[in-house]
Inverse folding.
């Protein structure tokens, strides 16, 4: 399992979008200038994830005004992710990493069959990566449970702090 360091170029990837078609991180970085939060979440079945994605959607205009975009990745299946996206009116890319390949490349914690406790079966846990316009990691945080993740207010502070203190 990889452990990305600050300043590392984040692994590029192409994954299926919840609603169909493919998403390429490299293409997105070139087409939508600015920074990118790549956020791994547990799945459409997770109430904490649903709340978090809705919170970010409600605050999306703030981030877009600062040229900060979001891309969400889950090991959940494409159909369930699309139903969640439609139900909550989510507009950011939501991607299905059914093979766990990208999860592994980023070093995201995987709650597998060998986990110490049962927690909705096999899935990836929350992880946050803030990438600059070139795709370099400027911030990362990983969780081993659904709790303790930063919400939009904290993500604002994180981005503002990093922007203010860039070398």
């Amino acid at each position: 399992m990889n452990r990305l360091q600050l300043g590392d170029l984040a692994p590029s990837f192409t994954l299926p979008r919840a609603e169909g078609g493919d998403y390429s991180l490299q293409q997105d970085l070139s087409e939508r200038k600015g920074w990118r939060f790549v956020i791994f979440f547990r799945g459409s079945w997770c109430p904490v994830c649903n709340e978090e994605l809705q919170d970010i959607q409600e605050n999306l205009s703030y981030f877009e005004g600062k040229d900060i975009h979001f891309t969400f990745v889950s090991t959940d299946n494409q159909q369930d992710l699309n139903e969640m996206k439609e139900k909550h009116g989510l507009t950011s890319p939501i991607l299905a990493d059914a093979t766990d390949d990208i999860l592994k490349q980023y070093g995201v914690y995987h709650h597998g069959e060998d986990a110490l406790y049962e927690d909705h079966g096999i899935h990836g846990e929350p992880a946050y990566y803030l990438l600059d316009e070139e795709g370099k990691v400027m911030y990362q945080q990983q969780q081993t449970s659904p709790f303790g993740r930063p919400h939009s207010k904290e993500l604002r502070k994180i981005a503002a702090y990093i922007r203010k203190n860039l070398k």
Remarks:
- The mean pLDDT is 92.
